[in-house]
Fold:
Amino acid sequence: MLAVCFVDLDHFKAINDTLGHAVGDQLLQQVARRISGCLKEGDIVARWGGDEFTLMLQNIQSTEDVAKVAQRVLNSLREPFVFNHQAFRITMSIGIALTPSHGQDVETLLKNADAAMYDAKHQGRNNYKLHSSVTIGKALDQLILTNDLHKAVDQNEFVLHYQPQLDLQTGRVTAAEALIRWQHPHKGLLMPGEFIATAEVTGQISAIDEWVIRAACAQIRSWQNRGNPLLRIAVNLSAQTIQQKNLPKKIAQILLEHRLDSSQLEIEITERVVMQDIPAAISTLQELKDMGIYISMDDFGTGHSSLAALKQFPLHSLKIAREFIQDLSPESREIAVVQAVIALGHGLNLETVAEGVEKVEQLEILRALGCSSVQGYLLSKPLAAKQFQQFIQTHNNPEELCKAVTEH
Ligand code: C2E
Ligand code: MG
Ligand code: MG
Structure:
């Protein structure tokens, strides 16, 4: 068989943007050399354009053969690249199509390899994917989704739902998380799991995140004008948004426009987001924290947490991932994990918020372990703004809340 591979560097634009095009050019040359070093005689590597390369591999006996080469190419980027005494890493995503099963002409093979490459990007980048007919269907869906997403921001098709967080010490709701939903013109209400990953791949996420910050701030202002109790509202931000150098300035401007105090806004980031570029993330987060914005680490325990890095992050709280809470019972092993995270929080002077609390039993365990707050269906599902306001009004004292939770 003959294999056609489509190779695309991950986040290459960030290199050009931060280190300049001269460094970007040198990097492409060095990547090309490393790829060539992985190939046999007679194989071909070509620069397709921009940060894309194509490979043509001959004498492939089985899919394992091509998988081995693809893995070798991925591994060749493990060693950091050094420019001007500065070391950095880059990864790539690879899509593969084989003759004759995935096409018998140049165009089909390239198209299928390209679609498989997109699949690899969607599965978290830094990997390779073999073409499958599912890939094509998915690629088409993604293309349609990408087009629709473009219109969605302009046509105001997003909405925020709000999920309350209960402070276990005071028994009051002190904060809520804003969660995005997309009122799609044909597909109905879409959850973030159905479009955020695509928006991240296509680079549309930053515009969406900015919309979210604005919408959340406008909502806080409107609730405040109606005399509702002051709550802190949390928004989730993706890696690309955190990497924007002017993010703190932009947020300061939005807070000013809505005449809000910075302590009313919270930013949730995941471990994955900060680990991509630790120094840059620390500096942006520090700036946001200095402004008075509350910072939390979302889904803590599920990403590549480096405890060494954790102590450097400017944070206020750790949100314990739902994965650890869902099986939490007195006999479970999860209890040890949750206890350790809460102790870690205490040691680092951070609050702890448990996500996905669905049962009274879980709430009682968390209270006994000294967890600061809980969020989850037990208290309430994420609610549209109007329902959220009603929820706060009917449950604005600890006794009412307690009743609501235990009657659940
Ligand atoms: P997340 O930030 O960890 O949000 C919590 C998710 O858990 C939400 O799902 C929420 O509805 C769900 N959840 C809350 N309580 C419970 C419970 O008791 N049981 C169960 N089974 N689930 C519960 P949702 O709204 O689908 O959001 C999923 C993820 O999408 C979020 O995870 C967040 O990472 C991302 N996301 C949401 N909104 C935004 C946004 O505005 N911007 C960005 N960049 N990402 C967002
Ligand atoms: Mg979150
Ligand atoms: Mg979470």
Remarks:
- The longest strand covers residues 172-184.
- The chain is about 45% helix and 25% strand.
- The chain has two domains: 2-131, 154-407.
